[in-house]
Design goal:
Chain B: One of its GO terms (molecular function) is oxidoreductase activity. The complex is a heterodimer of chains A (347) and B (76). With 347 residues, chain A is α+β, with helices and mostly antiparallel strands. Chain A is built from 11 helices and 19 strands. Chain A is elongated and about 90 Å long. Chain A starts with a strand and ends in a 5-residue tail after the last helix. Chain B is an alpha+beta fold and 76 residues long. Chain B has a single domain, classed as Alpha-Beta Plaits. Helix content of chain B is 21%, strand content 18%. In chain B, the strands form 2 sheets. Chain B has a two-stranded antiparallel sheet. A two-stranded antiparallel sheet of chain B has the order 2-3. Chain B starts with a strand and ends with a strand. Classes of the chains: A alpha+beta (347), B alpha+beta (76). The interface between A and B is medium-sized, with 17 and 18 residues.
Chain lengths: 347, 76
């Protein structure tokens, strides 16, 4: 009989079985949000969710889920149900997400490079730090036009212009007590004329051509920012923050689950476990809106909720109820698989 | 994994007793800083140090450990 082999690397693990097909389940703790969907969907009860609250607060150093390799039948259902791709199941080296006969959750997050203006709003908002915006800024010298010259004969080497220049374009090279060189870097100078106004001996002649003649000798193309926005699929949880904050609608997110998130504020004791565990920055404690006013204990931005249920599992006093009403999944011919997937819905 | 205490480190401040969300749901008066009226809570300060009463009720959320100033209560 073929036996399962478990290999544990730090908090990650692999469970393998070699028979006619090589079947392997790999768990990535870093991607896992501790939602417990795998525990719910596992048909043989081989997966056990850890104490996720204590783990995300770094109280204990443990893996977010445990698997009993003796019980695991290497069916791959947990991998299909995992909304954040923390569990990958492969058959003969091919992930089942690429095998058509297996169902797959439908979810995606994309940033359209043609529309993106590389403002980095999504990078700042992403609760998983999954977005990197790499951008090339235009040359500053191509956005301004003007002239500047320093008359070294008049200059008294006071250093005021060097100290005041906001663009760090002026450098004085002090060679001896009365021997110096002064130079303006025209790639840096923006012709703001601060140096000219501050010079005590009027040694600086400068003019901004943009102010006096307009911008006719500037090419708008030179002002364009180019770049690329990248989403790390392992870290992304499809919460939709990027889509919400994007000023040009370049980000599009499709979530795998539909549902509702209900908070019972009478039960809530504001321990903050849910706030710490939520992978989507949905839950937060409100700041008092004015002195001596009492706001709700706990608030939610439900539009970013992925209905994973991690908060409900971690709440010590059952103050949170996550309902999953819809599972977006590609069709499967297997009725038992469809039944398992539907079991993720809550009534 | 279980909840542990080290009475030698404990200051008896009772912050864990107040912070514990389960304690508050069992005995609401502890949230006001009063002692519990029952021994049904997970932990209480007794004779100036922390003592575990019903550790089986702990849901391992880690809130007590976050607030304890002296690492006298922790999950292990």
């Amino acid at each position: 009989m073929a036996a399962n082999i478990k290999e544990v690397k730090a908090k990650d693990f692999n469970v393998e079985r070699s028979a006619e097909e090589d079947r392997e389940l790999s768990f990535k703790d870093e991607s896992c949000v501790g939602c417990g969907v795998c525990e719910t969907i596992c048909p043989v009860g081989a997966i056990k969710l850890g104490s996720v609250g204590a783990i995300v607060r770094n109280d204990i150093d443990e893996s977010k889920i445990e698997i009993d390799e003796e019980k695991c039948v290497l069916c791959g259902m947990c991998s299909v149900g995992c909304p954040v791709d923390a569990l990958e199941f492969t058959v003969d080296g091919t992930p089942i997400s690429e095998i058509e006969t297996y169902p797959k959750l439908i979810s995606s997050a994309e940033i359209d490079d043609d529309t993106c203006i590389y403002c980095k709003a999504c990078e700042r908002a992403c609760p998983r730090e999954a977005i990197t915006v790499a951008r090339q800024l235009p040359d500053r010298s191509k956005l301004v036009t003007g002239e500047i010259d320093i008359d070294k004969e008049t200059c008294i080497d006071c250093g005021i212009c060097e100290e005041m220049c906001p663009a760090d374009a002026i450098t004085i090279d002090q060679k001896g007590p009365e021997d110096f060189d002064i130079a303006v870097d025209k790639d840096k100078c923006v012709y703001c004329l601060v140096c000219k106004k501050a010079c005590p001996v009027d040694a600086i002649m400068a003019a901004c051509r943009t102010c006096s003649y307009g911008e006719y000798d500037l090419d708008p193309k030179d002002a364009e920012v180019t770049g690329k926005a990248l989403i790390d699929d392992d870290a992304c949880v499809r919460c939709g923050w990027c889509e919400e904050v994007c000023p040009v609608d370049a980000a599009k997110v499709e979530k795998p689950f539909e549902g509702e998130l209900n908070l019972d504020l009478d039960k809530c004791t504001t321990c903050g476990a849910c706030v710490d565990v939520c992978p989507c920055d949905v839950l937060f404690f409100p700041k008092s809106s004015a002195p001596a006013t009492l706001d709700d204990k706990l608030m939610k931005d439900e539009q970013f909720c992925i209905y994973c249920g991690a908060c409900e599992n971690v709440c010590p006093v059952e103050a949170i109820d996550v309902k999953r009403t819809g599972i977006k999944c590609t069709p499967t011919k297997s009725k038992s698989w469809q039944k398992s997937i539907d079991s993720l819905k809550t009534n | 994994m279980e909840l542990k205490v080290n009475q030698d480190n404990c200051l008896g401040c009772g912050v864990c007793v107040v912070a514990c969300p389960v304690n508050v749901s069992i005995s609401p008066e502890v949230s006001g800083g009063h002692g519990s009226k029952t021994t049904e809570t997970i932990m209480m300060v007794e004779n100036g140090v922390i003592k575990l009463f019903s550790e089986d009720k702990c849901t391992k959320c880690g809130t007590c450990q976050v607030f304890c100033p002296t690492d006298a209560i922790w999950l292990e």
